Amino acid sequence: MSQQTTREIINGIRGTKTVPGVCMICPWHCPTENFVKDGRIEYVRGNEYAANRTTRCVKGISSIHSSRDKDRLLYPMKRNSAGVHERISWDQALTEIAGRLKKIKDEFGPESLVSLFHLDSNEMFTHQLFGHLYGSPNLSGHGAACDQDRRLAALSTFAHPLPVKDYANSRFVMLWGADPFGPNEALHENRELLEAMKRGCRLIVVDPNRSRTAEKAHIWLPIKPGTDGALALAIAHRIVETQSYDKSFCDEWVHGLAEFSEHVLSNGYTPQWAEGITGIAKETIIAVADEFAATKPALMDGLKGLVNYTTGLDALRTVFALNVITGNIDGPGNLILKEMSPLGFPLEIPEEEATIPEKPPIAYGMGYPLAPDLPTQLLPKAVLEDDPYPVKALFFHVCNPAMSDPNTRLFEKMMAAVELSVTVDIYMSETAQLSEYVLPEASTYERAEVRESMWAGPQTVLAQPAIAPLGESRPYYEIIKGLAEKMGYGAYFAWDSWEDWARTCTAYLPVPYEELKEKGVWEGELRYRKYNTDGVPTSTGKFEVYSTMFEEMGYHPLPVFNEEHRVKPDADYPFQLVNCKMQYHCGTHTQNNPYLMAIVGENYVEINSLDAARLDVREGDLVEVASPHARATIRVRTSEAVQPGVARVPHGHGFGRRFGSIARGRGTHINPLFETRANPVSGGISFNECKVKITKA
Amino acid sequence: MSQYGFYFDKEKCVGCRACEVACQVWNEAVQTVKWRNVTCLTRGTYPEVAGVNASLACMHCAESPCKKACPRTAISKNEETGAVTVDRTRCVGCMLCLWTCPFGAPQMGEMGRMEKCTFCEERPVGVIKRACEEICPQQAIVSGTIEELILRSKQVAAERLSWDARTEVVLGHEEE
Amino acid sequence: MDKFAYFWSLIIVGGTVFLMGAYRNVFLKLCFIRWINRKIREEGGAKVERLENTPIPEPATIVREAVFQKRIRNRSVFLWLRHCLIFFGFTAIFALDCIYTVFGHYFHHYFDYTYFTSGAGRAFLKAGMELSGAVLLVGLTAALVHRVVYAERERTLVNLNLVLLLWVVTLTGFLTEACRLIGEPDDPFVDCSFVAGPLASALRGIDAPWHALATPIWILHATVTVAFFAYLPFSRFVHIIAAPIGRSITQDGNYGRLKRERVTEGLL
Questions:
Q1: Which of B10, B25, B48 to mutate to test binding with chain A, by most A CBs within 10 Å of its CB?
Q2: Dist CA A440 CA A463 (whole Å)
Q3: Which of B44, B122, B135 sits opposite A640 (nearest CB)?
């Protein structure tokens, strides 16, 4: 009995078979286990061999519905002249799309194709078909609407795009505008943080609103929206002034400490100065700074609460600089510069046959040479005004910029004007409704995935199809294979089943393929302080608090506090609109889910009860939220957790104009209220730069 | 007979409701209404706000009040695990059990019969976790015999003190 | 022995059993519930508004749940219709029967009136009892047929015997009335017995000593009826007493939510 794994016990109870999978709801992609019986998913849970163990978040566990959802896309569709989507055959769809792509390449060059995707592992096929073979440089994730500023700040400081967190060994954690407990980001990280807190780790949260994470914090700093940069600089000022940084580490591994110190001291970024801007008492700032400098190991990290403002990039650069100057980097209990597992591409394309794009990525021409991801909010300009060069074809894979980008009306105009638009998704998303071709993808339960996961060390997930695809839907790799064959690249796609390319991808892993397939996950060794052996891949070979990359491109090499692009509430529009994520939803794929819709069926605007009393509205009332650009009607929730003067709205709702029997008509789409505002360096969309007024509807 | 029960850690729970849905998914065949419910409360005024989340299901009480209150003797205790179960063929849906229950656990099911947590009766106790416990991202829910759970809570408290490096901590008078 | 003397002894025995059952299965339970809720309230510490020891049921909930049976309506219209036929039929015939017994058989000895003995009141009661009896019989027959035919899904949830017992009670009631009508063909209210009347005509065609059978059938009907009432608190029909109390207090699960909030507040 004791020899049985818990997998086997569950299989014994339910007569099921375990198929390892991966959760595709949010970008953290937790390894999972699916329990299958007679072509039906009976139960799902986390992969017990992975860091998240058997746990799932609410969105993950309820995503079991997507394997059964009859409202999913079931066959390929094409928009007819009347603007209605009609069913077509796979052969017709792929032939037509391939023909049009070839024509566009001949006429306008390969860079006029822009492919946007979510962080799906099958994106390897996008990269190989549209990048290596077709030759477009414009392949991009959805980063501009997400963590663009954090990525660029991390790149400029550590030359690593996605530092992760080693909470387990930490003694001091400070989170800026990040709410990992709310939408349940990396499950193992959250669990480790709470366990570390049980052992005395301190948690400090900087957030205007009392988020789920702030709820658990020892110290919550209710900062004024968008002023995190000032607070971070003030903490840096205190540390520099008291010289409590790690001198020996800085000498060896930090570039530009002298300039940084000089910059912070001479510009007067004192706690006193920050008190007036942030609303945090200077004594508190000094106490937090001293505790941070004195406690090791410590870590500081920030996310969307910062990047949603135009000040976010510099705030994050300061936060990362603080990690670096105190020597809190890549060690146990610090930010970890995650090592990737040695995964290969699924297709073997000889170097001489691969196409090298002639033009640089379109972000260059748009004026964002440092942007890690394409600033998608500027795509309409490229399509409609051929600026900086014409974009003729848009290929969307499981992303829904029609909902996630600001200024929805402009996006709709672009979709009407573009020559070819293709959306691959599992639901008839808003973007799909605006696209010419809609191709149904198999859900995560019906397809294979080989991908890197978000654990701090190298971790590979091999997900396998558990059931047959619903309707005529196909896994993404089959769609790309079909398309490639029609485009004349069939020779590279000579595999018969997913196992062939999965073997190619995982050939360099130090684990036999069969074992990986059985467990579904492989975890390498978590190495600390890799810079000691591998160095730091910046141009100076050190962690840069004075960015040479920024200097080269003509930007300020040191972080400043510049409120020039901020949009602040005024007399006419007295509320700062703050975007947040709902704990129980994530994007399009949770909107038709009966489990989640039963918990919360629609989004709402959350305001402090003092504001509510002033506006004479009560919980559940309909209100009209109006920005200078547009208005939306939405239900109000009063909450003591929201800062007075702030209106907090969960975004990404209001789907279902035509999609889904459960989603239809629920929620309010808030993005039309946002003007297209972006960080001037990274191009990341600054959703929170929005002032609104609220009136009773 | 041993008495099994749930240990719930309010310091870990973030109110994500994964336990609710895990319970629904695992007990899909017999569950028509949520057996486990998360209650999230906030009290106070900004910025002095206090909040707490609690995931509650049937506590499988040793001296079950619901068992005593049932006019149809539909509620019984499992000899082996101490789990409180309801016999739906005897239940008439009068909900006197809900009136009695201190935790508000009994739920009115679709067929007009009371339903509640069965302690995942299919899952062997002591060998494998309950569905809610297995899924909980924070591992805020733990099941086990009452003796194990009491020992566990003592260990957690002891461990916290042994790790705390601050000098001002006096045993038994740890600052909040 | 006079049949009414038998009837009253039956009522006394049956009533005692009923009261014993009601005391044991309902009254004691309610006392226990009140005791435990008071204890939780006193020892629990935290208080949530509107969570009284004995909450006052909302009238709207009673109407919705007890009279209109909303929950069954949500499940299926057929089940709801059936339940309503039984519920309203049973309530009406029980009430009318009580009035008829009291005013038609006893009170006219002490008070001077003819309304319920030979007047329009008697016709009204007769017709009402016939109608509600018919409604009850239709509902019960539907329930019996449904349970025999479609029992698959609900097999574990029903008790056929109990429905059968009430069905026998109703049927013997009509038989008794029919036998009485055979014996008294000149009854001035024969037109009111629109079910038992035709039944009597039909029975006349069958060669049997109906006149002699009238009393045994009447006794059978009375015995079965009293047995039914005596059995009530020990059977599923205890819900007739317990469900209106429990359901109206717990109000659609809202009460459970308040209880959970109170526990949560205690953790704050």
A1: B25
A2: 19
A3: B44
Could you please state the CATH topology (level 3) that the domain comprising A77-142+373-511+518-523 is classified under: Rossmann fold (3.40.50)
Helices A228-241, A282-294: axis angle to 10 degrees equals 60
Q: How many domains does chain C have?
A: 1
The verdict on a CB contact (< 8 Å) between A610 and B46 is: yes
Position A674 scores a pLDDT of: 86
- For domain A575-674, give the fold: Barwin-like endoglucanases (2.40.40)
Quick check: bond before C209 cis, omega within 30? no
B51 and A CB contact within 8 Å = yes
pLDDT of residue B175: 46
pLDDT band of C156, cuts 50, 70, 90: very low
Q: Please give the CATH number for the structural domain made up of B4-163.
A: 3.30.70.20
Phi, psi angle pair for B50, to nearest 5°: -120, 140
Question: Does A390 sit behind a cis peptide bond, omega within 30 degrees of 0 on the bond before it?
Answer: no
Topology (CATH level 3) of domain A6-67: N-terminal domain of TfIIb (2.20.25)
Give every CB contact of residue A661 below 8 A, 6+ residues apart in sequence.
A71, A592
pLDDT above 70 covers a percentage of chain A that reads 99
Range of the domain at C166: 64-257
Query: What does the alpha-carbon distance between residue B137 and residue A488 come to, in Å, rounded to a whole number?
Result: 47
A279 and B CB contact within 8 Å:
no
pLDDT in tens, C191-207: 788 888 888 888 888 87
Chain A partners (3+ C-beta pairs within 8 A):
B
Q: For A256, what's the count of Cα atoms within 13 Å in the CB-facing half-sphere?
A: 26
Q: Write the CATH number for C246.
A: 1.20.950
Q: Which of C18, C27, C33, C258 to mutate to test the interface with B (most CBs of B within 10 A)?
A: C33
pLDDT band of B171, cuts 50, 70, 90:
very low
Distance between CA atoms of C98 and A321, rounded to whole angstroms?
89
Domain residue spans in chain A? 6-67, 77-142+373-511+518-523, 149-338, 575-674
Q: Do chains C and A touch (3 or more CB pairs under 8 A)?
A: no
Q: What is the pLDDT of residues A617-646, one digit of tens each?
A: 999 999 999 999 889 999 999 999 999 999
Put simply, the chain B residues between 4 and 43 with a CB less than 8 A from any chain C CB are 10, 33, 37, 39-41, 43
The reported pLDDT for the residue numbered A327 is 95
Q: Subunits that touch chain B (at least 3 Cβ pairs < 8 angstroms)?
A: A, C
pTM: 0.89
Tens-digit pLDDT profile for residues A452-498: 888 899 999 999 999 999 999 999 999 999 999 999 999 999 899 99
- Fold assignment, A149-338: Dimethylsulfoxide Reductase; domain 2 (3.40.228)
